[in-house]
Design brief:
Order of helices and strands: HHHHEEH
Structural class: mainly alpha
Number of strands: 2
Radius of gyration: 26 Å
Shape: elongated
Distance between the termini: 63 Å
Number of helices: 5
Helix content: 55-70%
Largest sheet: 2 strands, antiparallel
């Protein structure tokens, strides 16, 4: 079980990535790598950790790209609505963009209508409610 080259490690990690995405168990991945790559459990577990981190970063980057694309679409919708005088549509596009980017925190909504006060506590957790009390 001598030292492996960078290329061998990359190929082994590619196999590990494929097996993880196929839903193979860690035990099965360890057995496969032991048999085909002649490495021990510790090396395979390090590979699994590395692949999980790599996949997490990949999916985060992908998610960020999708959010950026949707934000651009909402900005376009906002501009189009304003150009035709649809302020309600423009405000809805702005609200959707803020919701998508989580720009605004979900705070309890306080509304005053016809001299009556309405408070929406539906977005608060039990802990938040306890703090308010």
């Amino acid at each position: 079980m001598g030292r492996k080259t960078t290329a061998e490690v990359a190929l082994r990690r590619s196999d590990v990535r494929d097996m993880l995405l196929q839903g193979k168990s860690h035990e099965r991945i360890v057995a496969f790598c032991n048999q085909n790559w002649h490495v021990g459990r510790k090396a395979v577990e390090a590979d699994i950790t590395f692949v999980y981190k790599e996949l997490r970063e990949y999916f985060q980057h992908d998610r960020d790209d999708i959010i950026a694309e949707h934000v651009a679409r909402y900005e376009h919708i906002y501009a189009e609505c304003l150009s035709i005088g649809d302020t309600k549509g423009a405000m809805q596009a702005m609200k959707q963009k803020e919701q998508l980017t989580k720009l605004l925190d979900n705070q309890p909504l306080v509304n005053v209508n016809n001299n009556s006060l309405t408070i929406d506590l539906s977005n608060l957790s039990l802990e938040d409610l306890k703090q308010l009390l």
